[in-house]
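Structure first, sequence second, as always.
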């Protein structure tokens, strides 16, 4: 995924990110990226979830972002991020089909900050950390679309998918692929039940981010028991 975005930048104008203070600060945060021998416990993971108006990463909009940091197999509750993005009437109407699931309406939106300001704040919070989500491709993709549209830049973060990590524990050899049929067996509800995680706050960005963070800690602990203790082993 990272290489795909890199190629797009290079082909566009041979410039990595726009020349603005917030993008420069973000780019600077990547100067010390994890090496293959970096202990996993030293890494900062940002575990996040987005609630959206739909499942099309190019056309739908982000309603809210929730995130919390994990480091040294601990969840750092004081190191968290939550924002409800402003919605214009057409977007709000478009998102009504999703509202019964995630319970987000326009009244929850942040009226003091613009979407651009919220995305800048989240960029600073995320920094060069490892991006983690349940079925991460969707959250990564819709955030990429938002950053391209509002701030003319892209995220560079390395990413992990908790569903894939759970599947890896079941199949260390990766002899079977996590296809769409199997993905249903590795949904957040199913994994929470399997790993004895109480299901609370589902279908809110912050609630799902916290559940995913708890799941990540449990998965990392089990992987550590199997000798996976460094970034190069985890990211292979």
């Amino acid at each position: 995924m990272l290489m795909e975005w890199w190629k797009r930048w290079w082909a566009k104008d041979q410039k990595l990110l726009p020349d603005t203070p917030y993008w420069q600060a973000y780019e600077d945060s990547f100067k010390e990226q994890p090496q293959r021998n970096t202990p996993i416990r030293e890494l900062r993971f940002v575990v996040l979830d987005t609630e959206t108006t739909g499942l099309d990463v190019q056309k739908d909009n982000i309603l809210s972002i929730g995130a919390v940091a994990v480091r040294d197999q601990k969840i750092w509750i004081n190191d968290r991020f939550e924002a409800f993005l402003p919605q214009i009437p057409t977007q709000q109407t478009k998102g009504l089909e999703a509202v019964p699931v995630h319970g987000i309406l326009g009244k929850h939106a942040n009226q003091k900050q613009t979407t651009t300001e919220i995305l800048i704040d989240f960029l600073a919070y995320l920094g060069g950390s490892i991006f983690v989500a349940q079925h991460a491709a969707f959250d990564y993709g819709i955030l990429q679309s938002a950053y391209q549209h509002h701030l003319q830049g892209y995220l560079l973060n390395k990413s992990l998918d908790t569903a894939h990590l759970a599947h890896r524990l079941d199949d260390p050899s990766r002899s079977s692929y996590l296809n769409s049929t199997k993905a249903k067996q590795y949904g957040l509800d199913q994994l929470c039940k399997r790993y004895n995680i109480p299901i609370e706050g589902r279908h809110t960005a912050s609630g799902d981010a916290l559940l995913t963070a708890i799941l990540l800690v449990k998965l990392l602990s089990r992987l550590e028991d199997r000798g996976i203790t460094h970034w190069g082993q985890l990211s292979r």
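Margin note: The domain at 2-234 is CATH 3.30.420.10 (Nucleotidyltransferase; domain 5).
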